[in-house]
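Support request from a user on the community tier.

User writes: "When I paste my structure tokens into the form, the page sometimes reloads and wipes my input. The last time it worked, I copied everything first. Here is what I submitted, just in case something in the input itself triggers the reload:"
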């Protein structure tokens, strides 16, 4: 016969088994010892009036019930309150057992028990040592209670903190029908009875505690339908005496919660249900363990699950508990939930607790219900995972509800009506049409990158860029020791990702491809970030889309992309995100992770445009000085993250403060454009967009005049004024001169004025967004709706008009596909074990220039360079170049000088007939061929014994042996040096101050009589090593740790800020 759904099926013989249960299992193991320790005087019967209850009629089908209330009192006050609640019951118990558990005893309890005796309740007393738990002594006490043989005996356990409501006992008894072993009440908060503390015990099969309902849930009757549970807490629990004695009571080795869970679990297996009476309320003072399960309770629940698992499945359950606790704990720690992670990890010791085995062997209670029939009583794994995720996310609060509603509004109507889709379509089309000259160039060679404008082009892989940043000596040609920007590491990481793309991994310059992708996709990326940043100031979607379109169609935006100014492109893409993030950091509801993410984006922007980092750090210092506690933490993030991630590059900025005003592609020659045109957002060569940008600036000025309290408008005005000052002052601020060998060598360099114009445009757009969102209520009437229509119409018209003009005139033709000037044989020699160099000679209007090209990557984007005096080796090569082209004389042949300095090939770009003849006639130079307007000669000299010149070589008499090296002669370990007398390294003497050269482990010092580092090797030298080493390795390791920590803190996993808690 089957019961109702959800109720465990009980076998037919369960009732017969319990009918014949004797008293032989009433007191076992520790409980029996406790029972023997009780003296006769510990249970005393008080005088009481005879019961007025009538003898049950023979016609009654339900056997009479005798209820014994066991009250465990820890103090007289608690005892008095519990007894008062007991006497207020509309169904009084038949018997009372008062257990004295006070530290110093309750003393004379006659005054406490007199009202009980007057109510006709039989009174018994006992004592419980202060260090004894009620679960340990309860079996012995129940065993010694008088037994009424005419009906069922029920035991109602009330601890000192329980305050049962008047109808509690009546409802509990009513729920204790046939086949019920225990009835659990609803525990509510004594201070607020509308708050549920606990309703039964809910766990998974593996013992994960999942309280349902959660402590503190408002009681609205939503849980009154809950009937069955796997177990219930002892507080207020009504227990069938026969069931309790048959189960041998609690297992004290499992603790409080574990013992309660184990008792209910065994009762269910024995065919005696554990039911709940949600309408029977018992008030308690909530403990911390009830509000949040403690690690000890979690371990107890796990041990109870292991004790009740099938013997064959127990090892697998233990393995699952260990793995899930370990993985879950570590994941929660990563998600910035260290407390929850510690709780998960606290379950691990339960797997190895030997007491669990003893609990399995204790108490041979009947097992009338199959384990599978109890599945409905346990929390499912899916529900447990959902609860864990919800707890990790934390409470959402009113602010999150507003955000959720805003998100629904954002998504309302579907994607086809969403402005972000059309914004991306428009900007992608604009970018593709405006970059038609660039894409036409890329069709010839997409894997080489671009050159022209501020892009210098070059061959650079991820590994080469990483070595360039990590090594203490780096750079092309003779190299240098100045620390490089962290942007080199970012470029190396992106180049590594490109290298994994099929078809692009073998490209000539992965770094060049990354920069090309950035140029081509700059406008869509900038529009996307601008749209998101505009949400900080308004929630009007189409207005945000219009502002984003206006942002990417201005004259400085087009100039930044058309001239390949990587720093300006980064400013175009990241300035809206960083600016909006700084504004949000000033608000009390700003999430800490959002501020850290803003600081990370600011650090990336500062690595390309250093002045942007200075501004963000200044904003962070302002929050530190004038903000409250929450804003100060935001200020710490804005100050610390950019500075920590800058690393040793700060030393370079300190040595040359002018670099703060420059950046990757952020310098220009003095702009001849008139001041008034610069103020209107006009750059040289872009006059057609003047009036559209001017209209945008005029709209921003009008928006600043709209009345209303708008702190963001003041920030927009300050931003616009700062941009205007930069725009007007930058052309007059000379920070350097164009390097020799470049077009326009010696020309004065100034900061790029377009950066100030972008800041000016940003201030105007923010003013428009803020004004449209905070117009006075009186202006929103029918007579003033034109104020709302004005920005909604003018802004899109300005944006579309400017975009059309930019598309018609394109980005210009400054950018072209970069071509490798060296032949493949020269590239192979540079990147092979010889690590040789190629001398590239060009004739320009200012004269003949040359550069040494090896495996070390040079700057791919023009930046402010610091002039340094030439080294001796550089002077020798310059003299040899002049000699080979017939512009000078020397005592040595040019090929000898070239070979001595590791030059294996000479490439002349667009040589004249006279130059070709001179080079062909130079001894030791053999023409290899010509390609794309260049001619290549191979260098062969007696200096290297006719072999290919190398970066390092061993000399012994007239013989020369190549030493396999990498960039800047680093050997990456020991190399064979048998038979060599002298080690010659084709580097500068400054290089020898930082590189460490060892012979058989002994450090060598460079000779001072040569223009290149030369080392005398000791006799019988077997191995040599050249270690260029890392520059500031400890600092860079700390920089990497700071990045990992910042990325961890930037994870959006913290609980949302409740605005009510902020007040």
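"...and here is what came back when it finally went through:"
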């Amino acid at each position: 016969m089957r019961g109702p759904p959800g109720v465990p099926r009980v076998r037919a013989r369960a009732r017969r088994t319990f009918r014949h249960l004797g008293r032989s299992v009433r007191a076992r193991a520790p409980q029996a010892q406790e029972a023997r320790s009780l003296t006769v005087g510990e249970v005393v019967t008080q005088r009481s009036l005879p019961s007025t209850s009538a003898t049950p009629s023979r016609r009654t089908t339900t056997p009479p019930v005798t209820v014994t209330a066991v009250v465990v009192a820890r103090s007289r006050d608690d005892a008095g309150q519990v007894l008062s609640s007991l006497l207020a019951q509309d169904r009084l118990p038949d018997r009372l057992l008062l257990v004295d558990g006070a530290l110093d005893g309750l003393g004379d309890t006659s005054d406490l028990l007199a009202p009980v005796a007057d109510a006709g309740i039989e009174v018994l007393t006992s004592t419980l040592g202060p260090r004894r738990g009620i679960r340990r002594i309860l079996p012995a006490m129940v065993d010694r209670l008088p037994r009424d043989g005419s009906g069922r005996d029920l035991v109602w356990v009330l601890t000192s903190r329980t305050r049962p409501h008047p109808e509690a006992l009546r409802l509990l008894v009513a729920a204790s029908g046939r086949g019920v072993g225990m009835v659990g009440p609803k525990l509510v908060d004594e201070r607020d009875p509308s708050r549920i503390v606990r309703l039964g015990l809910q766990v998974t099969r593996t013992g994960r505690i999942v309280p349902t309902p959660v402590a503190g849930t408002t009681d609205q009757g939503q849980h009154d339908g809950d009937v069955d549970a796997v177990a219930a807490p002892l507080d207020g629990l009504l227990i069938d005496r026969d069931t309790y004695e048959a189960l041998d009571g609690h297992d004290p080795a499992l603790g409080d919660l574990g013992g309660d869970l184990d008792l209910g679990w065994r009762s269910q297996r024995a065919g005696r249900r554990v039911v709940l009476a949600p309408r029977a309320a018992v008030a308690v003072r909530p403990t911390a363990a009830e509000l949040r399960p403690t690690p000890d309770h979690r371990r107890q629940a796990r041990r109870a699950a292991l004790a009740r698992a099938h013997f064959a499945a127990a090892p697998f359950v233990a393995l699952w508990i260990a793995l899930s606790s370990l993985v879950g704990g570590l994941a929660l720690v990563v998600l910035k939930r260290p407390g929850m992670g510690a709780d998960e990890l606290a379950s691990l010791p339960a797997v190895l607790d030997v007491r669990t085995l003893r609990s399995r062997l204790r108490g041979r209670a009947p097992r009338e219900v199959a384990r599978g029939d109890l599945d409905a009583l346990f929390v499912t794994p899916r529900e447990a995972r959902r609860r864990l995720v919800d707890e990790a996310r934390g409470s959402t609060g009113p602010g999150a509800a507003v955000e959720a509603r805003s998100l629904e509004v954002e998504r309302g109507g579907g994607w086809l009506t969403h402005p972000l889709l059309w914004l991306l379509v428009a900007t992608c089309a604009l970018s593709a049409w405006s970059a038609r000259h660039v894409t036409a160039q890329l069709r010839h060679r997409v894997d080489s990158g671009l050159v022209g404008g501020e892009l210098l082009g070059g061959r650079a892989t991820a590994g080469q860029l990483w070595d360039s940043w990590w090594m203490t000596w780096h750079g092309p040609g003779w190299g240098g020791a100045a620390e490089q920007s962290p942007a080199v590491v970012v470029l190396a990481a992106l180049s590594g990702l490109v290298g994994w793309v099929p078809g692009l991994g073998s490209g000539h310059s992965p770094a060049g491809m990354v920069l090309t992708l950035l140029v081509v996709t700059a406008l869509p990326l900038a529009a996307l970030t601008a749209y998101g940043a505009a949400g900080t100031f308004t929630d009007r979607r189409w207005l945000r889309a219009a502002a984003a379109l206006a942002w990417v169609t201005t004259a400085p935006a087009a100039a930044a992309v058309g001239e390949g100014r990587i720093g300006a492109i980064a400013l175009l893409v990241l300035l809206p995100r960083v600016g909006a993030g700084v504004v949000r950091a000033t608000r009390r509801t700003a999430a800490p992770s959002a501020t850290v993410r803003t600081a990370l984006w600011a650090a990336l922007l500062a690595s390309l445009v250093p002045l942007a980092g200075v501004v963000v750090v200044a904003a962070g210092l302002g929050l530190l000085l004038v903000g409250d506690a929450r804003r100060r933490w935001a200020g710490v993030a804005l100050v610390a993250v950019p500075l920590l991630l800058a690393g040793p590059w700060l030393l370079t900025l300190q040595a040359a403060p002018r670099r703060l005003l420059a950046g990757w592609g952020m310098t220009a020659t003095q702009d001849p454009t008139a001041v008034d045109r610069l103020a209107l957002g006009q750059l040289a060569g872009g006059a057609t967009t003047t009036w559209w940008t001017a209209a945008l600036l005029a709209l921003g000025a009008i928006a600043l005049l709209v009345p209303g309290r708008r702190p963001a408008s003041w920030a927009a005005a300050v931003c616009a004024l700062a941009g205007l000052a930069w725009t007007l002052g930058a052309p007059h601020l000379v920070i350097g001169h164009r390097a020799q060998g470049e077009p326009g060598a010696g020309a004065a360099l100034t900061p790029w004025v377009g950066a100030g114009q972008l800041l000016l445009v940003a201030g105007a757009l923010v003013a428009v967004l803020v004004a449209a969102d905070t117009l006075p209520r009186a202006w929103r009437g029918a007579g003033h709706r034109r104020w709302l229509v004005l920005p909604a119409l003018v802004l899109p018209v300005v944006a579309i008009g400017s975009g059309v003009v930019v598309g018609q005139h394109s980005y210009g033709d400054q950018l072209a596909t970069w071509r490798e000037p060296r032949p493949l044989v020269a590239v192979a020699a540079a990147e092979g074990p010889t690590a040789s160099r190629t001398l590239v000679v060009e004739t320009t209007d200012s004269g003949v220039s040359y550069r040494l090209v090896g495996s070390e990557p040079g700057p791919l984007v023009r930046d402010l360079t610091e002039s340094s005096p030439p080294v001796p080796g550089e002077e020798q090569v310059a003299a040899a170049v002049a000699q080979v082209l017939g512009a000078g004389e020397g005592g040595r042949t040019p090929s000898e000088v070239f070979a001595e300095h590791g030059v294996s090939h000479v490439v002349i770009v667009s040589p004249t007939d006279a130059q070709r003849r001179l080079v062909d006639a130079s001894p030791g130079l053999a023409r290899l061929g010509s390609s794309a307007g260049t001619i290549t000669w191979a260098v062969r000299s007696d200096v290297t014994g006719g072999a290919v010149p190398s970066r390092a070589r061993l000399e012994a008499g007239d013989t020369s042996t190549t030493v396999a090296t990498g960039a800047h002669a680093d050997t990456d370990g020991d190399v064979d040096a048998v038979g060599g007398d002298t080690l010659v390294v084709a580097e500068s003497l400054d290089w020898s101050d930082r590189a460490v050269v060892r012979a058989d482990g002994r450090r060598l010092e460079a000779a001072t009589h040569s223009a290149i580092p030369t080392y005398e090797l000791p006799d019988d030298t077997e191995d040599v090593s050249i270690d260029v080493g890392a520059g500031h390795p400890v600092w860079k390791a700390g920089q990497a740790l700071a990045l990992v920590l910042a990325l961890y803190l930037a994870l959006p996993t913290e609980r949302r800020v409740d605005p009510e808690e902020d007040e």
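Agent notes: The reload is a front-end session timeout and is unrelated to the input. The mean pLDDT is 84. Residues 786-809 form the longest helix (24 residues). Escalated to web team.
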